[in-house]
Amino acid sequence: MTSLNKEQERGQWGSKIGFILAAAGSAVGLGNLWKFPYMAGKNGGGAFVLVYIIILFLVGFTLMLAEITLGRHTQLSAIGAYRKIREKWAWVGGLGVIAGFLILSFYSVVGGWVLSYLFKALTGALHESNPEVLGSMFGQLISSTTTPIIFHAIFMALNIIIVFGGISGGIEKASKIMMPALFIMIILLAVRSVTLPGAAEGLKFLFVPKFSAISTSVVLDALGQVFFSLSLGMGCMITYGSYIDKDTNLIQSATAIPLIDTGVALLAGIATLPAVFAFGFEPAAGPGLMFVTLPAVFSQMPLGGLFAVIFFLLVLFAALTSSISLLEVCVAYVVDEWKWNRGKATTIMALIIFLVGIPASLSLGPWANIHILPGRGFFDTYDFIASNVLLPLGGLLLCIFVGWIWGTENAIKEATSDGKVPFSLASAWVFLIKYVGPLAIGIVFVRSFMALFS
Ligand code: PFF
């Protein structure tokens, strides 16, 4: 038997659409379905959406192209990619692996809650219209000791099964099934929501910006959300980019992925907020919007039980296609750097991530009094360090690296395969990656530190 050569061991996407679906799958996740609607709800609706879209165009597309291009050029995951171009920068990739590791350890805990809610929806246990009862149901789940850990374990096990299958046989295949299903389900829910009597109020809230509601904190929240939602700043798109073949046009991909991601975020807003308004709930309900307010909304709709099942299945799919990308960042590191085979790398990494996630789950219940950072337990500490520190820092360093160290000429040559791109587009991208990106991200980063000590 011949042993696998390097490329076979690393794997490659089987098709262009497979790559786009997998990368869009990474981007579309809890960030879109859970976070975007409540962030919009909290930040004045249309004002947030408008600022989000502006930042998406200025920073989102720019960084997406930079990450994918760096990955394809080096054909290596985060650390190797930086190292291949400039030895001394390898640690930046290392920050990304740590971020992925940390994000997955708490993301999987939330993924476990989603699984548990899917079971509740299937058994009819969510058929309850009183938000207070639903609130205490949610509180009880996340604060108990064993149940959330069991669901966290099942969620990680699903990740192992998919990532074990490799790039085209595991991640791509899973994304090709789950992503189209997700599109159909979210459109169905959005249609259901906007056809409810009184839904117009919700649509107005979401799409008519009140300019007076735009404040610094809205802008900063939107910037952080663009990062998390597009899976940027931690080398995830570098890793996914490293499995692309040389004739894929990266500019098209880097345009399609953020558009799909934003489309789903907006559809999630359309599926959620008009329904919330139609039934007289509070749009600024915060993180509980998905687990508390929405089930209450569903229970008052015709066919609500069915829509609750569809909704939590949709969220599970979205969470899974994102979590596998987080696991893949860690697995690719071990495969590339330590030369482990994929099976061993996947199982051991997932097991360690599962163990690190246990304190995150316990910190919402029995360990609530243990603080790691001031005022923050394990769950919030992981989230804060990864999302508010490591991702912006990773994004900032990526801009500097691609803009000033590797060089935009090299990047453009790689992105287009033939080096041809309209001059105005190229110069806009150069300006964005060299100046606008670092400045915008630098601001979020400074704010993160200020938030830590305030
Ligand atoms: N983009 C995912 C979401 O919106 O839920 C979360 C995520 C996945 C962040 C992968 C970072 C990442 F590398």
Automatic annotation (TrEMBL):
GO terms for cellular component: membrane. It comes from the Bacteria. GO terms for molecular function: symporter activity. The chain crosses the membrane at residues 13-34, 46-68, 89-110, 149-169, 181-200, 222-244, 256-281, 301-334, 346-364, 384-407, 428-453. Keywords: Membrane, Symport, Transmembrane, Transmembrane helix, Transport. The keyword Transport applies. InterPro entries: Na/ntran_symport, SNS_sf, YocR/YhdH-like. The keyword Transport applies. NCBIfam families: Na_transp. This is Transporter. The lineage of its organism: Bacteria, Bacillati, Bacillota, Clostridia, Eubacteriales.
